[in-house]
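Troubleshooting entry. The earlier prediction with 2-acetamido-2-deoxy-beta-D-glucopyranose gave an output that would not parse, so I re-checked the input for stray whitespace and re-submitted. Clean input:
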Amino acid sequence: MSLPLLISSLLTVSSLTLSSVASPPMVETLEIKPQIINPHLPKSLSSSKRFEGSSNLVNLKYHMGPVLSSSPIKVYIIWYGRWAPQQQLLIKDFLLSVSPPSSSSAAVATVAEWWKTLALYTDQTNANVSRDLVIAGEYSDHKCSQGTHLTRLSMQQVISNAVRTAPFPVDHRNGMYLILSSVDVTVQDFCRAVCGFHYFTFPSVVGATLPYAWIGNSGNQCPEVCAYPFAVPSYMAGGGTPALRPPNADVGVDGMISVIAHELAELSTNPLINAWYAGEDPTAPTEIGDLCEGVYGSGGGGGYMGQVLRDQQGRTFNLYGKSGRKFLVQWVWSPVLKACTGPNALDYLEKH
Ligand SMILES: *[C@@H]1O[C@H](CO)[C@@H](O)[C@H](O)[C@H]1NC(C)=O
């Protein structure tokens, strides 16, 4: 449920250059010769018990609760702390890339294609997770109403303040609430145990049971932990192990995007922690993002993050989004394939 630390101990980047690849429709021509890379995962991650790769033995079960099936999913964003407009735009562009585009352009590796795997999850009424997602409201708590250190409980107070402030409604039907904390805000367990988590609010604090997720910008506090592979620990950099270049030139926020994706995937398939998870312990469920942590492309698992593309500006990515954006987003567990899956800009190249 929560994205744990990735303690980096080993990262090597090997790359090979494609000799003849076609330019995919959404790629500018200067990317005719992108590179394919498949870096090693940090040892702690590849040997993690929660990292299962592809296996029929993964015991992902449905526990009879609801999934986010009402369409569209309405995301209410709480910007906690000071955010730069371009950072907000980047995160919003990612969220707005989830819904399928209205024009039926050739399906390449898009965020909308990535979300398709989530739509394979259903509840006991056979309702699928919705494929449509909108940003239904934004609330800026730039003065940090609950201070510059948040706990799991004070976070609910932040949501409570937001839903008492019209027009940020209590949306039982379609709502998911997203608290995004800025670089200078510290959070209970942030960097030490989690990079983000999702849960639901309590009626005694917020007045309703609402699914929410928190993700922090680790840029100043622990990018080598929560924005991996865009940052590596200094002892590794000294050994010549480079960090990968983020697709949108913002280590903290580009790193956050994959954590946001991870939490959204889990929140939509397990919003009240009684739907889709593996393991027998509901207080420590292993969810569909956890099962594929650290896997971004084909050849991932067994100690590798999987093959992803590096464009000619050196930016690493696997998905395209709206406004010509590129993102590097981890894969998720498919209930049909019983494996980690996702689209990859690279796979498109290989077919041609
Ligand atoms: C809904 O989920 C079922 C079961 O995984 C799947 O067969 C079906 O294609 C899904 N529908 C959509 C629209 O994704």
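This one parsed fine. The longest helix spans residues 251-269.
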